[in-house]
Design goal:
The complex is a heterodimer of chains A (about 325) and B (about 260). Chain A is about 30% helix and about 30% strand. By secondary structure, chain A is an alpha/beta fold. The radius of gyration of chain B is 21 Å and the shape is globular. The N and C termini of chain B lie far apart (about 55 Å). The chains are: A alpha/beta (about 325), B alpha/beta (about 260).
Chain lengths: ~325, ~260
Amino acid sequence: MGDVFVLAEHRQGVLREVTLEMLTRASGLVEKLGGETVAVLIGSGVDSFAEKLAGYSDKVLFVDDPLFTDYNSEKYQKVLAELIKKYNPGLVMIGHTTQGVDLAPALAVEMNLPFVTDVIDLEFVDGKLQPVRQYYQGKVNANFAFKAEPPYLITFREATVEAAEPSRQGKIEKVESPLKEEIGYRRFIEYVEAEVGDVDITQSEILVAVGRGIKEEKNMALIEELAKAVKADICGSRAATDAGWLSHDRQVGTSGKTVKPKLYIAIGISGAFQHLAGMKGAKTIVAINKDPDAPIFSVADFAIVDDLFKVLPKLTEKLKELRG
Amino acid sequence: MKTFVCIKRVPDTSEAEVKVDVTGKDVDSSRFSFDINDADNYAVEEAVLIKEAKGGTVQVVCMGPQEADVMIRMALAKGGDNAIRIDDPRINVLDPLKVARVLASVIKSQEFDLVLTGCIANDDGSMAVGVALAEELGVPHAAMVKKLVVEDGKVKAYRELEGGIAEVVEITLPAVITIQTGINEPRYAPIRGIREAQKKELKVLKIDDLGLAENEVNAASSLVELQKLYIPVVVSKAEVIEGAPEEKAEIMAAKLVKGGLL
């Protein structure tokens, strides 16, 4: 099929884990299909990342230029298009991340590439690669086939495979930047750090988490009662913070906080993968949701499939009673 | 400011059972309720806020069946000026690049400064249409924007990154911005607006009206093809608490307290 390109994702001096996850998956692919794994690193002053990536790939293509100090979709797109034309890989993997979704669709259009987003797995059917993705927030899986010739382009979901230990010694090949000067209509200005709230939920031992299922702000009282009974802090899903029931610093998930409490009680949260990524490290997870197919149950230790409004008052009452 | 806002009608499957139909390539949607896509709802609000602050127009574009008119009228009631719905079974709606191609053909025949759309659709979760649309239009973009400041001939877009960090970029107009939920507080349509929306223009177009050939947007022209849909096997290690709701609560409370989980 050809080589597998993996775009290295990094930001603010940190190489992001999704890069190593993709290289791990790519290694499995080339074992079956032949070709090499190639990490594509675009940046400036990131030699240490090139070294690290070499441990996970057969080759590192390193475009090292001050033009790429910060990520910029226009510049990245230009460079990737040139590299794809020059090296003609079989598959190009980009993280299904805030960076990847800002970049990959435009690249797919520009180069007219067979393109599938948010891929969670790559299967082989009759010797051919089939990307697997999901619909309806994880309730349905879909296999796709690529119809045209490679290169193929996918965005690959974070945290679907675990990054292996480094086991290779790929060679680092410096590539001259196809760009010689600033271009385009988009300019990076700055990063703004997330707001800091009154409670740091990443430090909480017990969290009561609320989601869309609570329906209205007035029902938050039920959550507060429970939290009080078990001395928990309150956090929530994206739906809860978007609705204004909680401040943004209380959001758990990829765009919020990653938490690892002793106990996580998820109430009315269906469990989009973005949310699961932020809380599946909790030691014990209790989930209350009336939908038996809710993905939250895939990570739960205790499952209560029921109407939360019928369960919650009694749960709080009983906990108060048992704890005196 | 001439703004286009692209919206989608999607099923609410957050609590619904989803079943694959007999074709194995679609789901049985007969019992779903539908609404405007969440992120698109925020995009509509952002477009109306910009119009209120800077003047100009808001045009609503939607690809979908006649049932989508309810969502379109609602967007018009909130402040949209007119709407175009593209309804053509020849379009491969499973391919976000085809959807982007069609939307682009609607927009590029007119003048525009800004195109807004949700960064993700509740049903397919592709996160691809907006950015692909920008490339089709040949204009810059920013994806997953949670704050947008319109300046003279440009916008400052705050992209929401992992961990809640914002990446601030400055973009020259015209541009496409994909809107993240939570960027604003979508209003309810005012009664008067709902009445007025009935009189606003809503054009329904086919691909021929857009100068597109069938083999540019149909399934045969897509470079990827759906093979099958199936319900994933969910491996759950969870202990399922059984009983009436109150019994479940009691059992769970006892487990938490006696199991030393608190």
